[in-house]
Amino acid sequence: MKKIKFGWDYYNYSQEPTIKKIIEKDFKGFSPDGTYPNDSDTLPLFDSNYQPTNAWHNIVNILDRHLSIRYDLTNKDTADFIKDGESFIYLIATNGGPRLWCGGDNERSTLFHNIKEHTKQYIRDGRVLVTIDMSFEGFPMDGTDRLSSVDMGSNPHIAEVIHKRAEEEKFPTDKIVLLSANHKDPENYRKWCEKNNIKKPINWILLDWCEKAISSDYSHLEDTFEDNFNYKVENIDRLKHYLCLMRRWKMPRVFHHMALNYFNLLEKGSVSAILSKWDIRSVFKDIDRTKMEMANEGEVTFSDCASLDDFEFNKNLKDFTFLDLIIDEYQTRLKPDLTELGRSKFLYKVRSAKNVEDFLLKLPLTVDKKHFDTLDSFHHWDSQIYKDTIFSYVYETWCYSTNMVFYSEKIYKCILNFHPFITWANPDTMKYLIKNGYKTFSPHINESYDIEYDIEERSVLLLKEMMRLCDMNIKDLLDWYGNQSEILIHNYNHFMNNNHLQKSGDKFLKVYNRVVR
Q1: Which residues contact 50 (CB under 8 A, 6 or more apart)?
Q2: Which fold is adopted by the domain 214-496?
Q3: Half-sphere exposure of 259 (CA within 13 A, CB side)
Q4: Alpha helices of 316-408 — where are they, by DSSP H?
Q5: Alpha carbon distance 293, 288 (integer Å)
Q6: pLDDT value of residue 374
Q7: Which of left, alpha, beta for 138 (phi over 0: left; psi -120 to 50: alpha)?
Q8: Where are the domains of the chain?
Q9: pLDDT tens track for 340-355
């Protein structure tokens, strides 16, 4: 069995009893075996006001479990590998947006700054494959443009930072790998290298981690398309037109929820929305919004997602003393200079005080849960909510930036449950699904929204299509659903049988075999 060697600056340090106890208490998700992450300072171990800058990675788990050939993963302290004269992978995990780990605003967030000096010298000698794993949420290579900044906040140009820092540290760029879940990144990086006359590019590899992560829990889905269709026929009186889930309260999603309300479409769907106190800044001013922890799957998180207390609070919003303040806050936050939405005649009244109040007083909207304080987007989800609806209106992770296409579990759940979908996502999302071997739903769904780069116009196209579909009676919509059987079955089979992850793994291992001997 072939060995794959990972070196960790804090591997031995993490085994020290005092440090191990802290990690087990506060950072259970650190991998492998509770090892503190590379290229990080240790402030978070001793001060809860700090979060690790480089916390989460996927490639270790993928190499360990998900490729056709099994590998023997060896993890050791970098000092031990260097002492024995062995080369290895130095894996730099990421946490949140690039500004947190390669922004350079301070030493903590400066890429490569916190690598131990003995490891840096070994990298300079060409003995290490430096691997930056950014395969979680598909941030764009260039996050400096206006739309990307509105979508994700201010982020640096990742390629520029990596090349600049590699030059400053004298690291060989051909021995650096960047793993990205953004389907536009590899081509964008190639063009950037050509434009900037880069002689030695890094190895930019697409790694669509979500496609595999969601499949880790699909064994309970035994129903075929025919099973789903027959269930809908037999239970036609209980069906809703569509499913629309909103666990995290992001303003572009909230605007579309309020648009569904304005056009009287909420009642046609199975829709979730709970407003957390965390997200009411005008009233609950004392909540600490500087920290947002992501716990392990199944554990309670400290986050902006709604809790059971928020659910109870939503039920009594109409009697809340400061309801007018909340309405005013959300009407203000919906103004186009903040969200880029609501500028057109068609959508302008979505952000009216009357519509904002009407929507808020319908909360809480629940589908299967009354709170969202556990990380279960990939696990323990209920396929019944797809059976009881005919199609999905999907709010993807991002929707503004034109520099990225990222698929989360949200779209892959639809595919696994034979659900047609319309998606409020970045432009070209459907285009890249086709490039990846899937089929989309035209002409059954008007997908012209996918090539519309203007946010307002894309929203108009999406909502008009939602109005058209929701205007159909359930019997006609069920016929519409049945006519897409070939597409839905193809997508399910392609999901189950494609080798996208294997191809990405093979590309990574090709670089590994060139560098690590």
Answers
A1: 43, 44, 108
A2: Rossmann fold (3.40.50)
A3: 28
A4: 323-333, 336-339, 353-360, 384-387
A5: 12
A6: 56
A7: left
A8: 3-207, 214-496
A9: 899 999 999 999 999 9
**Whole-number Å distance between alpha carbons of 233 and 122:** 65
CA distances from 285 to 277, 280, 433 (A): 9, 8, 42
Show the tokens assigned to 310. Answer: 């928020």
Classified as helix, coil or strand, 472 is coil
pLDDT digits (tens, 9 = 90+) for 352-383: 999 999 999 999 999 877 666 555 566 656 88
Residues in Cβ contact with 284 at an 8 Å cutoff, skipping those fewer than 6 apart: 277, 278
In the DSSP assignment, the letter for residue 56 is B
- How many helices (H) and strands (E) are present in the chain, helices listed first? 24, 10
Q: Taking the model in full, what pTM does it have?
A: 0.92
**What is the helix (H) or strand (E) element at residue 509, kind and residue range?**
helix 500-515
Q: Which two structure tokens, joined as six digits, stand for 51?
A: 């979060």
Whole-number Cα distances in Å, 131 to 51, 75, 166, 287:
21, 15, 13, 37
Q: Other CB atoms closer than 10 Å to residue 83's CB: what's the count?
A: 11
The percentage of residues in the chain with a pLDDT greater than 90, rounded to a whole number, is 72
Q: How far from 363 is each of 273, 313, 317, 333, 370, CA to CA, in Å?
A: 7, 9, 8, 18, 11
Query: What b/e string do you get for 454-468 counting C-beta neighbours within 10 Å, with b at 16 or more?
Result: ebbebbbbbbebbee
- Token pair for 215: 């499949």
Q: How confident is the model at residue 23 (pLDDT cuts 50, 70, 90)?
A: very high
For residues 440 and 142, give the distance between their C-alpha atoms in angstroms, rounded to a whole number. Answer: 28
Q: Which residue has the tokens 């788990």?
A: 61
Report the 10 Å Cβ neighbour count for 443: 6
Angle, helix 474-482 to helix 225-234, in steps of 10 degrees: 170
CA dist 499 and 496 (Å) reads 9
Measured distance CA(36)–CA(255) in Å, rounded: 40
